[in-house]
């Protein structure tokens, strides 16, 4: 039996080696360089049938290093992680049908997962009422392969502490190496504020994209340092990395991520002392009061900036002070989009315009008094606020479902934390809640939930919270028998 397996593996290795040589030579002589990717595709196909767990870890490894690639104005993808997501989605579906017991018991009946399913179902229903059905179904399809690869498959693969450790290192290694090269490239530019986006390319669209993944992954470092004994190499490495990541967040000059980092301590105490429901209620009432004030008698118009004074500053200090003065171009450009989003919502309040339709339609809803030097939007970016984007595209129903989903994550996460007795599990749950809070903070000034630098962590957070809860419940039940 072992000899037969060895022969198969040796034959597969020889075949792949020969194909690699032929494809590289063909790519070189024909100048059709994509032919060099054929061996990689064959290797992925081979692993899909033999050990798809390796593909899952490869997907995690590819998150930081993936780049955006546009085939046309209407078709773009992230390479190589998005094709891997699609492939793993198909593999997961086949695997579940042949081995349904691999899914944690009662996974689909957990409150958080049910809330996620309702969120996805509404995006599907909303696509039929969209003003651009094709664009909306593209967004829905992307949501499905994100949810399948990072939520469902994570629940199947990441069942033990060792699995979580492996997933940590798969993301940590490439992300940390990228952080080091970004800091070095930024240093060569004198840590210039006005050239901050230059060192981020090609792996990150801009400094916001870069800072988001660095800040969101930061809680994993705090958890990982507890896995290893003092004075061990890995513990020292992670301790150094904590300082490196803080420096990277500071040097990203991204205000949202500063806030996300500052949110760690209050979030910890909110969970620790069971204050999640009051905290959510206070936040909701505050946001409702702010919106009521701004849009009663069009009070928001009083805060319109002077076009000539709203500029891009070349220093962090000026950037931060101008934010509070309403003279920073990036801040006021966000307000420009937010005003347009609210006006779009007023036009289609119940169902919205449909997913993926904000950018082609928002400019006719803008207010010129909030216009800035960058309002031509060459990046084709969106609303810069996830809640307003959902409100615009999925209507008040879609926003209500999304906010209920997030509230469920926080409230259930707190319950799971206090129900769990195992200290390792408690630390993991706390880290996941803090990580989801940092995602939420990032989404207040961006709309990157569909981004491959943010979206995976959101879906993995749901999967891991649910899986830890199911495992702890089953252990507790076994102990009481």
Overview of the molecule:
The chain is mainly α and 481 residues long. The chain has 18 helices and two strands. Strands 1-2 form a two-stranded antiparallel sheet. A hairpin with a 5-residue loop joins strand 1 and strand 2. The longest helix has 34 residues. It is globular.
Q: Unreliable segments (pLDDT under 50, ≥5 consecutive)?
A: 1-5, 307-313, 315-326
Computed over alpha carbons, the radius of gyration is 24 Å
Tally the helices: 18
Shape: globular
Question: How would a textbook summarize the main sheet?
Answer: 2 strands, antiparallel
Through-space gap between termini: 42 Å
Question: How large a portion of the residues is in β-strands, by DSSP E?
Answer: under 5%
Strand order of the largest sheet: 1-2
- Topology pattern, helix = H, strand = E: HHHEEHHHHHHHHHHHHHHH
| Tally of distinct domains | 2
Mean pLDDT: 85
Brief overview, please?
Helices cover about 70% and strands about 0% of the residues. The protein is mainly α. Helix 2 packs across helix 3 (about 50-65), helix 6 packs parallel to helix 18 (about 455-480) and helix 17 (about 425-445) runs antiparallel to helix 18 (about 455-480).
């Amino acid at each position: 039996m072992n000899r037969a397996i060895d022969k198969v593996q040796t034959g597969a290795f020889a075949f792949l080696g020969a194909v690699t040589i032929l494809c590289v030579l063909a790519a070189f002589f024909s100048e059709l360089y994509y032919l060099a990717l054929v061996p990689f595709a064959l290797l992925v196909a081979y692993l899909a049938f033999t050990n798809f767990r390796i593909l899952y870890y490869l997907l995690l490894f590819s998150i930081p290093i993936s780049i955006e690639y546009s085939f046309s104005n209407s078709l773009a993808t992230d390479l190589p992680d998005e094709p891997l997501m699609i492939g793993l989605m198909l593999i997961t579906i086949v695997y579940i049908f042949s081995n349904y017991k691999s899914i944690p018991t009662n996974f689909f009946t957990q409150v958080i997962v049910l809330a996620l399913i309702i969120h996805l179902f509404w995006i599907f229903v909303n696509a039929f009422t969209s003003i651009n059905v094709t664009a909306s179904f593209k967004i829905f399809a992307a949501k499905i392969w994100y949810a399948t690869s990072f939520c469902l498959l994570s629940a199947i693969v990441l069942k033990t502490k060792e699995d979580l450790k492996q997933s940590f290192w798969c993301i940590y290694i490439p992300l940390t190496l990228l952080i080091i090269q970004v800091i070095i490239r930024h240093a060569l530019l004198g840590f210039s504020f006005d050239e901050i986006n230059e060192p981020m390319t090609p792996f990150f669209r801009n400094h916001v994209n870069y800072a988001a993944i660095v800040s969101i992954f930061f809680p994993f470092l705090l958890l990982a340092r507890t896995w290893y004994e003092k004075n061990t190499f890995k513990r020292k490495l992670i301790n150094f990395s904590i300082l490196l990541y803080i420096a990277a967040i500071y040097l990203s000059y991204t205000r949202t991520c500063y806030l996300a980092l500052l949110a760690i301590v209050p979030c910890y105490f909110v969970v620790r002392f069971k204050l999640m429901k009051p905290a959510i209620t206070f936040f909701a009432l505050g946001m409702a009061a702010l919106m009521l004030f701004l849009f009663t008698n069009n009070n928001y118009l009083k805060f319109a900036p002077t076009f000539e004074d709203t500029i891009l500053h070349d220093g962090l200090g000026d950037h931060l002070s101008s934010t509070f003065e309403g003279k920073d171009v990036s801040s006021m450009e966000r307000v420009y989009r937010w005003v347009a989003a609210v006006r779009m919502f007023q036009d289609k309040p119940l169902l919205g315009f449909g997913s993926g339709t904000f950018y082609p339609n928002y400019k006719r809803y803008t207010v010129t008094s909030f216009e800035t030097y960058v309002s031509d939007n060459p990046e084709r970016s969106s609303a810069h606020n996830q809640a307003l984007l959902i409100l615009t595209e999925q209507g008040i129903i879609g926003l209500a479902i999304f906010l209920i989903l997030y509230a469920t994550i926080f409230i259930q996460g707190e319950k799971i934390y206090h129900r769990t007795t195992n200290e390792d599990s408690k630390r993991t749950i706390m880290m996941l809640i803090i990580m989801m809070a940092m995602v939420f903070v990032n989404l207040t000034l961006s709309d990157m939930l569909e981004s491959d630098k943010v979206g995976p962590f959101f879906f993995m957070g749901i999967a891991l919270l649910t899986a830890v809860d199911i495992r702890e419940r089953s252990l507790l039940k076994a102990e009481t028998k």
